[in-house]
Amino acid sequence: MAYVEGVQVVVAHDERATLRVGDVFVKIDADQTRIDVEVEAMALAPIPTPEVLWRNPPALALAAVPGRALGRLGEPSPASPAAWAAAGASVRLLHDAPLPPWPGRRLDDLASRLDVECEWLVANGVLPTDLVTRNREVAEAALRPWTPVFTHGDLQITHVFVEGDKVTGVIDWSEAAQGDALFDLAVLTLGHEEHLADVVAGYGTDVDLDVIHGWWSWRSLTASRWLVEHGFDPNTPGCEFDVLRARM
Fold first, then answer.
1. Percent of the chain with pLDDT over 90
2. What are phi and psi of 175, to 5 degrees?
3. How confident is the model at residue 11 (pLDDT cuts 50, 70, 90)?
4. Coil, helix or strand for 242?
């Protein structure tokens, strides 16, 4: 048996955990539906994804993809503009693919979640009322009907791997579903507004920037409570709270 230098905890909280052992990632998830979606979505996606090594519920083992992440929220991206454009092109390939057979979140549910999270942020004094109110107004631009496409659903820059100017893999597909194309583009560029033009250039079509800004606000408002309750800090420089402040 090959020797490895130990087990790295990539992420761990009360819903799921991901461990790295050498070049193998082991994901353990209390909700097997998420694992089911991840495996099927990777099989359907027309872009590079991790190889499934084995599956033994509640665990899933995936091979590491080559390269390094496009960047991290709150830090300058080490990737070139061409790499960001390549990421945009890969997203376009995904969005042009046939729809997955399962539906995504309904517009009414997204609006209701925004209401609940904004109320929590204000009631608990997490953010000033005027900041929440302004970003709630911005978020309304995203809550409109859209033509569904095959979306990744959680396309954070840490989920996109590149080598030079080429995308080598996209990971973490548990939120994949039919959804709004601009949501994927917004999550990819959240906190990295300086690379939005590169992504759009690679994507190859004009986008409604008001909708992108709306999804930035929606994502940051609705993610904040989960981040706080799971030990993450959305007030770290360059992260969710700074994204909200930038809309003021």
1. 88
2. -100, 5
3. confident
4. helix
Whether residue 37 lies inside any domain: the answer is: no
- 238 within a domain of the structure (yes/no): yes
The pLDDT value given to residue 2 = 52
Look up residue 86 and give its two tokens: 């390549």
> CB within 8 A of 11, min separation 6: which ones?
17, 18
Q: Which of 33, 22, 21, 10 is nearest to 171 (CA)?
A: 10
Taking phi over 0 as left and psi of -120 to 50 as alpha, with beta for the rest, 28 belongs to beta
CATH assignment at residue 156: 3.90.1200.10
Paired tokens of 191: 């906190």
Is-cis flag, bond preceding 148, omega within 30? no
Residues 6+ away with beta carbon under 8 Å from 212: 182, 185, 186, 189, 196
Residue of 165, 188, 170, 171 whose CA lies nearest to 85 = 165
Q: What angle do CA 50, 75, 180 make, to 5 degrees?
A: 55
For the chain, the domain total comes to 1
Indicate whether 53 belongs to any domain. no
Using one digit for the tens of pLDDT, what is the confidence trace for 29-84? 988 999 999 999 999 999 999 999 999 989 999 999 999 999 999 999 999 999 99
Q: Which domain holds residue 143?
A: 65-245
In a domain, 28, yes or no: no
DSSP 201-239: HHHTS---HHHHHHHHHHHHHHHHHHHHHTT--TTSTTS
